[in-house]
Specification:
rbstp2171; three-stranded antiparallel beta sheet; two-stranded antiparallel sheet; 16% strand
Length: 140
Amino acid sequence: MTNPTTAAALRELIKGTSDIQEELVTIPEWKSAEFLVRGLSGHERDRFESSMLKKTGSKGKPEIEMTDIRAKLVIETTWTPDGKEKVFSLGDKDWLTGKSSRALQRIFEVAQRLSGITDEDVEELAKNSLGEESDDSGSS
């Protein structure tokens, strides 16, 4: 298939493309339970990253809050093997954080890879959220 040359045709091509990656993962620590790990959409990734920010201090500048990052990503990306139902909800976060960190890390790493979330992305989010300002005043 040749690449469409009009904007409308390109939009239709993109709309019709299934681009969210999935991978079946077995977790030995959880009696070899099998999960479908699905990468995040753009909206889901924005929501996930926003969930790691909290306002603090009188100025209310956002700061990164890494607490429960693994459980949060596992909750967002873990589905039944047939892909029809999410396994966990936000209400499961407290008990899920008490489970094996090795098991959570197995899912976290797959979800991170499928969602295109790199360690550098997390560092950049932290840098931006800590209020580091650049000089874009235009003066030299």
